[in-house]
Design goal:
32% strand, 226 residues, 13 strands, 3 helices, alpha+beta, 5-stranded antiparallel beta sheet, 4-stranded antiparallel beta sheet
Length: 226
């Protein structure tokens, strides 16, 4: 009976070694557009839209799989809460979905703060899990419209210059621009990216300690007459 005590006592050492998981790599690209009709594919919402409004695409541009929900935090100054949350979905490598901003996102005074002030704009969220074979990592991602840049700055009729805020017509304070100005924006782009982690010195050392512990456990077990 006593022969089993020492190996079992060593199990926490082994478990602790394997518990030191390394984050897996991923790449999710958000593209924003203001258009007459959805310029992207696979729209997943059913919101009513006017002739023109903001749209965004979420594309899995990496080698891992995303499972979870996509949403927006979109509380407008004049039209109330236009936020969205998807049903659970899966984005395999190369897959993409799109979402429309309800009504006309150019005419509601901007998003997520007092009207006619500099605010974050619509915030896009991804909550779920990235998986790569047996490896998995929980993710809770958020990016605001103000941080999704087109690289093409323009000055609108109110004297405000920006290359972001594409989803609300291109004005950083939420003023209503002409349809021509809003539709003339270049698409914005932002990538959530985590490169595949290289084994660190610490993880290699931890693995060595785990193996060493296993050898010591086995030696101790044998010394007891196993």
């Amino acid at each position: 009976m006593h022969r089993w005590i020492r190996p079992i006592a060593c199990l926490p050492l082994l478990v602790a070694g394997y518990a030191q998981a390394t984050p897996i790599g991923y790449s999710i690209t958000i593209t924003t557009a203001y258009a007459a009709g959805d310029p992207f594919e696979n729209r997943i919402d059913s919101a009513f839209t006017e002739l023109t409004t903001g749209y965004f695409q979420v594309a899995n541009t990496g080698d891992t799989t995303f499972s979870g929900a996509i949403g927006t935090i979109a509380v407008s100054a004049f039209a109330g809460d236009l936020s969205f949350a998807s049903d659970p979905l899966v984005l395999t490598p190369g897959a993409a979905v799109s979402v429309a901003i309800p009504d006309n996102s150019n005419v509601v005074g901007g998003f997520n703060g007092p009207a006619y002030e500099y605010r974050p704009g619509i915030e896009i969220t991804l909550n779920g899990t990235m998986t790569n074979g047996p490896l998995a990592e929980a993710v809770d991602l958020l990016v605001a419209d103000r941080d999704i840049h087109s690289g093409v700055p323009r000055t609108d009729g109110f004297g405000l210059t920006s290359d972001s805020f594409v989803l609300q017509g291109g004005d950083p304070w939420g003023f209503q621009n002409s349809d021509a100005f809003a539709l003339g924006q270049a698409d914005g782009a932002f990538t959530f990216q985590q490169p595949v982690a290289e084994p660190s010195t610490a993880s290699i050392l931890a693995a060595g300690l785990t193996i060493g512990a296993a050898i010591r456990c086995r030696a101790a077990f044998r010394s007891r007459g196993a």
